[in-house]
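Pilot study result, target chain (190 residues):
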Amino acid sequence: MASLTFAQAKTLLAPYISSQGSTDPTVASAINFVNERFITSGQWKGNRFIHSFSVSTASDNTFYFDTITGIESVLKVMAVDPTYDAGEIVEISGDWYPFNDAGIGYMPANYTGDTQVIRLGPTPASALPSGSTSDTQRYRVVGRVPENRTMYCLVRRGYVPLVNDSDLLIPSNRNAYRYGVQAYNYENIN
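Predicted structure:
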């Protein structure tokens, strides 16, 4: 399937959204609304991809990595050592797991054993003293001290608003977007 840019989508879909043409701001709003729905509601082609993360050390000497904008969550991890001699498949434990009766409880910073990656939830926004969080996720890595492996992760795409004309729509299915913006109009009118 050919890629579809934001500029192409505005031109293609404007007749279904507004009589003002592709420059009408409602066209961009409608496409972004539909794009967010598509990305967050299914496993479309392009919704999963591989991204690598370097592990950092927190102030309490625990190891972690943070996702970036555009990644909703990490689905699977492979920890690969710097020499690329070995890779270890690692399961992801949810943020609730350490608190579960059958869970692992708190693991100290110097814990060594099977590698585990534990989702901690939204990344603390260190630049904001208010204690707020960002839209990225933090994952704690336990099992090796020091942890210097690269984490190759299968990740799920997160929604990022389309802004630039060169931004790509994912999925890039023209008919799906046509029906999506028609449904968007129907919801707004009725």
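One observation from the pilot: The beta strands are 48-54, 56-57, 63-66, 71-80, 87-90, 92-93, 116-124, 133-142, 150-157. A full batch analysis is planned for the follow-on phase.
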